[in-house]
Amino acid sequence: MTKSKRKRTPKAVVKLPDLEQSKSAVLNSLTSPSSQRSYDHAIREFIEWYCSEPRLAFNKTVVTRYRISLEQRNYASSTINLRLAAVRRLAYEAADCGLLSADLAAGIRRVKGVKRLGVHVGNWLTAEQGKRLLLAVDDTSLRGKRDYATLAILLGCGLRRAELTALRIEDLQQREEHWVIADLVGKGGHMRTIPVPGWVKDGIDAWTTAAGITAGTLLRSINKAGRIWGTGFTFLYRQRNATWVASSDFETRGMIGLAWNQTRWERSRFHPAGRLPITDQGR
Fold first, then answer.
1. CB-hemisphere CA count at 13 Å for 43?
2. Which of 2, 143, 204, 260 has the smallest number of Cβ neighbours within 10 A?
3. The domain containing residue 87 runs over which residues?
């Protein structure tokens, strides 16, 4: 007579090993590296808060208290809602693995996010500030030509950091006598084609000619001797290079209150040479 298997009973109190197992299940279900990083950070912070003091159960009441603690830290509503989305996903995976009661998971998923009241005005570059930012770059050196091309693409095309540093020469194509970045796959798997203004293409050509790049990754590392090193950027450098280039030039030109990502918001209006109308910038 075979021994019957004992059925796992869903838990109400979820301990650290169970949370770590559920966290791994959440991260393995995500395909985007940026989503994995943001969810990993959000879940890790929740686990630290959850384990900081004894709790009766992983349920709706506890998650509501966590939301209140986030609000008391004066986090933005978008940040709080992202953290809650990660916690809901954690509860869903825990229930799916049999580590949490389905009723408790359903209650956690009903925890409401924070309403966003009003419209965030934001902070972005004016056309004059964009011109000053480009003029701050010393384009007589190889590094300066690369930095100028980096800023020109950020201002004129509005790419994200990951999109910019992964850009390849083959992505730049000519369509109907206009240069475009064709079929760019961006955040969330969205595909789009981005017009490239003439002054941006001139900056790219100056960089590729000086660097002798004819194929592959557009932006490359430069060593201390001022020579091209490798075929692209390392992972950490790839995530921070555009930030460093833009931020250092912001400080040089006295634009301390601005950040690198504001170049994306400005790109639909910025045309320093006056060669392209606003409608050609690709909103």
1. 26
2. 2
3. 16-109
Contact 244, 235 (CB under 8 A): no
Q: Domain count of the chain?
A: 2
Q: Angle between the 142-157 and 198-211 helix axes, to the nearest 10 degrees?
A: 150
- In tens, the pLDDT along 30-72 reads 988 888 999 999 999 999 998 887 766 788 999 999 999 999 9
Report helix, strand or coil for 168: strand
Residues in the chain: 283
Q: Which residue has the tokens 């299940």?
A: 25
Q: Which of 57, 81, 109 is the last residue of a domain?
A: 109
User: Cα separation of 136 and 9, whole Å?
Assistant: 65
Task: Tally Cβ neighbours within 10 Å of residue 152.
Answer: 27
Confirm whether pTM is higher than 0.90: no
Spatial distance between the Cα atoms of 46 and 66, rounded to a whole number of angstroms: 8
Per-residue pLDDT tens over the stretch 67-86: 999 999 999 888 999 999 99
Within the chain, strands assigned E span 172-175, 178-185, 191-195, 221-222, 228-229
CATH number of domain containing 133: 1.10.443.10
Residue 165: name the closest of 104, 94, 242 by CA. 242
